Structure formats: C-alpha cells, structure tokens
Amino acid sequence: MEVFSEYHKSKETLFKRANEILKDGGIYDIIPCQAGFLMYYTLSENCRIAYTVLKGRNDEAFKFTIGNKIDPQNEIELVKGDVLYFCYQRSKKTFFYCPKALIGKREFRMEASIGFSTYGQKTAMLKEGLIESCLSCDISTYYYNLIHNYKCDGVAYRNRWREEQSDNAF
C-alpha cells in the first residue's frame, strides 16, 4: 500500500481534491498546518483493509448505516464497486470507513464516514459474497497506523514538497 501526501493552500482546492480521492474509493487524513493543509491519502489497491462491495442481499443494494445505531436517515445504498475500509468489529457488527459517504462534504477526518451494515461480521459477508478483499499482494501495515504516525511540520513539509515538485517538473 502506498500513502501519498499533498499540500494545499486553500480549503477549496483541498476539498476539490478530497472529493476526487473519495470518488476513486480512497481515504484521507487532513492536517491543518501553518499556511494551509496537509493531506495524506491512499487508494484501495493493495490495501489489506480495503473491501469492494459486490452486492446486497436478495438482489438489493448493499445497505450501509453511518454511525453506530440503526437509523433510516443515516442509511445509504452502496453499489457494486464501492469501497469500504475495515475499522473494527464489535458485537456481531463490522464497522468500516465508507468514502462514498463523504463525497460533497467538507470533512477533515474519515471518522465521519464510519458505519456498519446489518449483514453481520466481515467473515460472514466475505463467505456470502457480499464483499471481497481489494488485496492483490501482502501488505503488513494498516493505513490508520501509517497516517497517524506522521507529524506535521508545515515549513519542513512545504520545502520538501516544493523540492519534489521541481524534481518531477519534467
């Protein structure tokens, strides 16, 4: 799994890019820095916590509830190809980050997309063919740990980012 980073000076460009990442099934973490925003993100390819939705039960859409309680107002329907990122399991529920839930919203943290389905635990959903792993090779580090181990030093990051941009200019 590869973690990418970008620096944005304005919220407009930041959230425009965040929506592009979400539409591609990625997840991100945004850290405010001195003169802008630092965004770390990854896409679902080669990520061991990423799962692709295949179908719902009884030929219906895959039903996903944002939050931790069943509430029809917080329910969204996922279609084949939508991506979920495993978060945790508790009392016969599996919680995932759902990038689709944040499209068009201006959220700094993926935690706002955490929710669950009523289809049971992850292993049951895999066996039933409701979801499948996005993993195409063995990845040993979870996205969450990678993202939250980074430290934001705005000046140092901007300098490093400018060097990378000038190196990649041609």
How would you describe this protein?
24% of the residues lie in helices and 30% in strands. The strands form two sheets. Strands 6-5-9-8-7-4-10 form a seven-stranded antiparallel beta sheet. A three-stranded antiparallel beta sheet has the order 1-3-2, sandwiched between helices. The chain has one domain. By secondary structure, the protein is α+β, with helices and mostly antiparallel strands. The two termini are 26 Å apart. It has helices at residues 11-23, 122-128, 143-148, 154-167; strands spanning 4-8, 27-33, 36-42, 50-53, 62-66, 75-78, 83-90, 93-97, 114-116, 131-133. It is built from four helices and ten strands.
Give me a quick take on this structure.
Helix content is 24%, strand content 30%. The protein has 170 residues and is an alpha+beta fold.
Please report the number of helical segments. 4
What portion of residues belong to β-strands? 25-35%
| Number of structural units classed as domains | 1
Basic shape = elongated
Question: Care to count the β-strands?
Answer: 10
Q: What radius of gyration results from the CA coordinates? A: 17 Å
Tell me the distance between the termini: 26 Å
Q: Structural class per helix/strand content?
A: alpha+beta
What's the pLDDT, averaged over the residues? 80
Q: Could you estimate the helical fraction of the residues in percent?
A: 10-25%
Strand order of the largest sheet: 6-5-9-8-7-4-10
Helix-strand pattern, N to C?
Answer: EHEEEEEEEEHEHH
Oligomer: single chain
Unreliable segments of 5+ consecutive residues: 136-155
Largest sheet composition: 7 strands, antiparallel
